[in-house]
Write a structure and sequence with these properties.
eleven-stranded mixed sheet; 15 strands; elongated
């Protein structure tokens, strides 16, 4: 038998979600059976699968040790690099400036050195994250950006902050602005592009369509031209919808592919300029809550920006992007 006291990062979780995180090797069918047979109890009593756990409650699990993941004396995140550029940090969140080429989460090719692993290592060494004291929560990212895109990524230090951030991102109450350099010059100085995006999972590519279908999603992309010279333009872009590869595909669809974009761009010209990945950076973020922000309400109205964007400074050093 193992028992767990519900901490602040687990309070409010459904019982089945809590058990899945604390006993990850327990099959779902057995989980439901053990709850029904009272082999999993809350405060000494039978509970339903959907029971919401309260702070301080005691969850007792009369199940075999084999279903619990063994504690590792060495944490995976300790293999990650210590390199971390922090834009802002407080007791609830951390804004990291992710450099291009770094994964935000592990994939089939890279497991150890990712942005989230670097953040977890940083917080662990700082004494703000103790895996042994947590039943299920780990510092987590509220948003993500592509490996070859740089910019601000939001990390939550506790479960309540993560819940609020995910909700605000879903309801588009956090504004994200991007800088990019494109080939050519858009037809208007500023515009809102509208279209329909179709995703091809096999090719990991998207296509912009003029007409809506069952396979498409509506997209809206706002851009402003900051400067143009030598066949290139520096743009500020705001996503009015957030879809996979939206900026890259949408700009390419109007004849202005991103500099360095090997998937939607012009490879020959990009290589000549020394660009091997897309010139795209999520450089500014504003908390723009329309509803109560809970423990993060103090962030409402605040704007954060990375100190530099390398490709803008290299090719358009005369432009002050704000």
């Amino acid at each position: 038998m193992k028992s767990f006291t519900v901490g602040k990062n687990d309070a409010g979780l459904r019982l089945d979600k809590f058990v899945t995180k604390t006993a990850p090797l327990l099959p779902t069918a057995l989980l439901y059976k053990y709850i029904r047979l009272k082999r999993i109890k809350v405060d000494g009593k039978r509970a339903e699968i959907s029971t919401r756990l309260a702070l301080g409650s005691l969850v007792e699990m009369y199940i075999n040790d084999e279903f619990f993941e063994p504690k590792s004396p060495k944490y995976d995140f300790m293999s990650a690099s210590k390199s971390l550029d922090i834009v802002y940090e407080d007791e609830n969140i951390l804004l990291a400036d992710k450099k291009q080429g770094l994964l935000v989460h592990p994939d089939e090719n890279e497991y150890n050195d990712t942005l989230i692993a670097r953040i977890q290592r940083y917080l662990y060494e700082k004494g703000e994250y103790d895996p042994e004291a947590e039943n299920s929560f780990r510092p987590a990212l509220a948003n993500r950006i592509d490996r070859n895109t740089g910019g601000i990524v939001i990390a939550a230090k506790n479960a309540e902050a993560l819940r609020i951030l995910c909700d605000k991102i879903k309801t588009r109450e956090i504004d994200k602005m991007y800088l990019t350099i494109v080939h050519g010059k858009p037809p208007k100085a500023t515009d809102i592009l509208e279209g329909y995006l179709e995703k091809n999972e096999d090719k990991r590519q998207v296509y912009i369509k003029k007409n809506q279908s069952v396979d498409t999603k509506t997209i809206r992309t706002k851009y402003s031209v900051l400067a143009s010279k030598d066949g290139l333009s520096l743009l500020k872009i705001e996503l009015l919808t957030g879809r996979t590869h939206q900026i890259r595909a949408h700009m390419a669809s109007i004849g202005c592919p991103l500099l360095g974009d090997g998937k939607y761009g012009v490879n020959q010209k990009d290589r000549a300029l020394g660009f091997k990945c897309q010139a795209l950076y999520s450089y500014k973020l504003k908390f723009n809550f329309n509803s109560d922000g809970g423990i993060l309400e103090y962030l409402n109205g605040k704007t954060f920006q990375v100190p530099t964007v390398w490709f803008a400074d290299k090719l358009f050093p005369e432009v002050k992007y704000k």
